[in-house]
Design a protein that fits this description.
By secondary structure, the protein is an alpha/beta fold. The chain has helices spanning 29-42, 77-89, 108-114, 118-121, 170-184, 214-217, 223-234, 251-258, 291-307, 324-328, 335-348, 377-388, 393-403, 439-444, 449-462, 464-468, 507-513, and strands at 10-13, 46-49, 54-55, 64-66, 93-98, 102-104, 126-127, 144-147, 152-155, 162-164, 190-193, 241-245, 267-269, 313-314, 352-356, 470-476, 480-487, 490-497, 503-504, 517-521, 530-531, 536-540. Helix content is 31%, strand content 17%. The chain has an 8-stranded parallel β-sheet. A 5-stranded antiparallel β-sheet has the order 16-17-18-22-20. It has a 3-stranded antiparallel β-sheet with strand order 7-9-8, with no helix packed on it. The protein starts with 9 loop residues before the first strand and ends with a strand. The chain binds 1-deoxynojirimycin (NOJ). 1-deoxynojirimycin binds next to loops.
Length: 541
């Protein structure tokens, strides 16, 4: 396997919220082309585009109607081909999102199955009433939906209009090879596989009396063989970069899937580090992060990935997460410092860093004032569930404000105009009212968060220890994380203070770094003994 992706910084675009160029209030692919020069300036190597295929938008495109199409609201094949060609000029590859666990119920296959076509009925998971289980959908409520036409239920682990596919059917897997080939022929250089490890449904469906059902369908043993088969038929080559989105996985599985010897993905996203601020497994809670738990967890993931030759995709932001600077930092008092400290953390860990649109200027949660401002099904459905279960409307809104996926789906703020330079008409979802965090200001200020990201991405190419080095924790507690990355004769010590207090380093650490050179620092100085609030320093020793 080609390991060049270890040197990459990958940038995620959520097309619907990135840049509108045809004044319909939705972002589009032309908008991505328009902003390529800025992304090239940032230094990224690949763009992962969230889905832009034909879709009824129940889940913003993750409900795919046709895998080999472009929804007219985003553009057409002419624009797409131009995007691939333009990006190539900047040495930027295009990665597409493959949502293969489910299709929309408007997909032709599902529609055919409704008409009684047996071939396509076997593409999905249909059960009679007495066979269905108590499994829950990840978006709340039952994972089974009744269908009058067939007097049967179909499985949907996500939105009721996202029907799970039957991967046991070889014809379904052939369809995926065909889709991959189609996009590779269009010059696509990478694929992100949406919730790929929940495709392994069991042979026997049974109730789950201790959980929501996930233990029966997550990380099944067939996945490795299936993916190899799909790639072989698609004619994959070494240069294709793949990233798996792994739902509730284990370290061992993540490393097995990404091991270059027999693995199936270049790298994998896991979400355990972003669940540290859940209370008793409940996402809809508002609490402070326990940094000690966070560091314990990412330390273990990095150590074991190295031992087991796996590779992680690291991120604190994406289209399913609230803005990290609002969640883990302090945007009011330490906006620049906390945004850049979180960036240094993500980019210096052992793995490939992902940047989600707007994080490179430190975008914050939009703090919508009413539940009616939210579009996301998961958020609005959980709001209902919370209120039905006795949470006050005010507290329910607080939880949604803090954790909703729409926090990151608010349009990218390019400037300080009413619609943020995203569009000249009212966008499909509200723009962040705080005009002060916008791209144009960031570009014009040499000391902005943007330039810290640019530096981190450049450093990755200059210091092999960042992309290829070993990892060792030197110290962590609930305020600081100090670790080492080493490659051949270079050693980097990364020191990150995630607290709002000054932090005096121990004598051992001082001794370790005393003759080093600072290669990254989000403050103008560092005296080798004390870290300021949210200070993040990388010292080459
Ligand atoms: C994970 C995607 O990231 C998320 O946005 C989507 O809702 C689910 N998978 C279902 O496709």
């Amino acid at each position: 396997m080609n390991s060049k992706f270890k040197e990459y910084a990958i940038y995620q675009i959520y097309p619907k919220s990135f840049q509108d160029t045809n004044s319909d209030g939705f972002g589009d692919l032309e908008g991505v082309i328009k902003r390529l020069p800025l992304l090239a300036k940032l230094g990224i190597d690949m763009i992962w585009l969230s889905p832009f295929y034909k879709s009824h938008q129940y889940d913003n495109g993750y409900d795919v109607d046709d895998y080999k199409s472009i929804d007219p609201r985003y553009g057409d094949f002419e624009v797409f081909d131009r995007l691939v060609a333009e990006a190539k000029k900047y040495n930027i590859g295009i990665m597409l999102d493959m949502v293969f666990n489910h299709t929309s119920i408007h997909h032709e296959w599902f529609q055919e199955s409704l008409k009684g076509n047996k071939k396509y009925q076997d593409y999905y998971i249909w059960k009679d009433e007495e066979e269905i289980t108590n499994w829950e959908s990840k978006f709340g409520g039952s994972a089974w939906e009744y269908c009058e036409e067939l007097d049967k239920y179909y499985l949907h682990l996500y939105h009721p209009n996202q029907a799970d596919l039957n991967w046991k059917n070889p014809q379904v897997r052939n369809e995926f090879s065909d889709v991959l080939r189609f996009w590779m022929d269009k010059g696509v250089k990478g694929f992100r596989f949406d919730v790929i490890n929940v495709t392994t449904k069991p042979d026997v469906y049974e109730d789950d009396h201790i959980g929501d059902g996930r233990r029966f369908y997550t990380d099944g043993p067939q996945l490795m063989g299936w993916m190899h088969e799909i790639y072989d038929k698609a004619g994959f080559d070494e240069s294709i970069v793949t990233v798996a989105e792994l739902s509730s996985t284990s370290i061992e599985n993540s490393n097995k899937y990404t091991n270059p010897k027999n693995g199936i993905f270049s790298m994998a996203f896991n979400f355990h580090h972003l669940k540290v601020d859940y209370v008793d497994g409940n996402k809809w809670t508002v609490t402070d992060m326990d940094w000690n738990d966070f560091f314990t967890l990412i330390d273990e993931w990095q150590r074991k990935a190295e031992e087991q030759d796996g590779w992680s995709a690291w991120f604190l932001n994406n289209h399913d997460q609230p803005r990290a600077v609002s969640r883990f930092g302090n945007p009011e008092k330490y906006h620049y410092e906390s945004a850049t400290a979180l960036a240094t953390l993500t980019h210096l860990m052992r793995g490939t860093p992902y940047v989600y649109q707007g994080e490179e200027i430190g975008m914050t949660n939009p703090d919508y004032e009413s539940i009616d401002d939210y579009e996301d099904y998961e958020s609005t459905n959980y709001y209902k569930i919370l209120v039905e279960n006795g949470t006050s409307e005010e507290d329910a809104l607080k939880a949604i404000n803090f954790k909703s996926r729409d926090n990151s789906r608010a349009p990218l703020r390019w400037d300080d105009s009413e619609y943020g330079g995203f569009s000249d008409v009212e966008p499909w979802i509200g723009v962040n009212k705080d005009k002060s965090i916008n791209y144009m200001d960031a570009i014009n200020d040499k000391h902005s968060v943007f330039y810290h990201y640019q530096d981190l991405i450049r450093l990755r190419k200059e210091h092999k220890a960042i992309a290829y080095g070993s990892y060792k924790s030197l110290y962590f507690d609930d305020k600081v994380y100090i670790f080492e990355r080493a490659y051949e004769d270079e050693k980097l010590v990364v020191l990150i203070n995630v607290s709002e207090e000054e932090y005096e380093l121990s004598d051992t650490i001082k001794e370790t770094i005393k003759d080093g050179n600072i290669i990254s620092n989000n403050y103008s100085n560092f005296n080798f003994s004390k870290l300021a609030p949210y200070q993040a320093v990388v010292v080459s020793i």
